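quick one before i forget lol
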Amino acid sequence: MVYDPSLRLPIDVFPCEDGHAQERSLLADVLTSVKSGDVWICDRNFCVISFMFGIAKIAFFIIRQHGNLPWQPAGKMTYAGRVETGKVYEQPIIVTDESGNTLKLRRIRVCLDKATRDGDQDIFILTTLSPKDAHAKNIAQLYRNRWKIETAFQELSAHLNSEINTLGYPPAALFGFCVALVSYTILSTIKAALSGEHGAQTVEEKVSGYYLADEIEMTYRGMMIAIEEKEWLVFRDATPSQLARLLKALARNVKMSKYLKHPRGPKIPKVKLKSDPKSPHVSTARLIAKRKK
């Protein structure tokens, strides 16, 4: 899936029926969708020489460096400042493909204050953007925002049922996932309308995607029965600007309190039970009785 962080929308998808296929096997198809002036932000799994050279022909990229990528330094590493997560350095490097063609890149190093879940203390980011196009700190921040695609996948799975277990045939599973993508686009449009009236920060931090999806699911059938077909023509015939104004007017009347998140408190660590090897069975009834006391 290709996600546009500025629009907060999935804008393209490349289905593959083989669930065990590497994402890298689809990169040739992805290159056909690259447009002039694009900036592609990718994780290190997409740090493939052919893919990077393909993007660099007409667009730009910001890709986390994979440990297996061969490269050569083309200058010294210099300090570029500090971001929220750590210190930033940059260095010019050169990458060469199988045909001997070279590509000059900027290698951004972020020395993290706190290690990642994988234990990485440093993150290296490669980009074709020049210093005039973007400062090293901006590039580090842009890559950090890449996690928004993970949030999109979480909503697709948890709120929109994008992976239905009973859809065993690959074409059916892919169709179901793409239907969920369309639903996600609708959900994002609703959030955008709410943001226009109630503030983007409020919607992003406090509004629950689950409650919005539940409202659509529970209300849709009754709405289609109660509202006549002619009443929907205004949405079909409206221009983009007219539709935006209409959605904002409707969002103005939404009771936001109905759709707010209910964050749970901190998890209470479980106490490990000590069992007697001679009687390893634990009686649930006795544990409950003990808790009541």
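fyi The CA atoms of residues 167 and 173 lie 5 Å apart.
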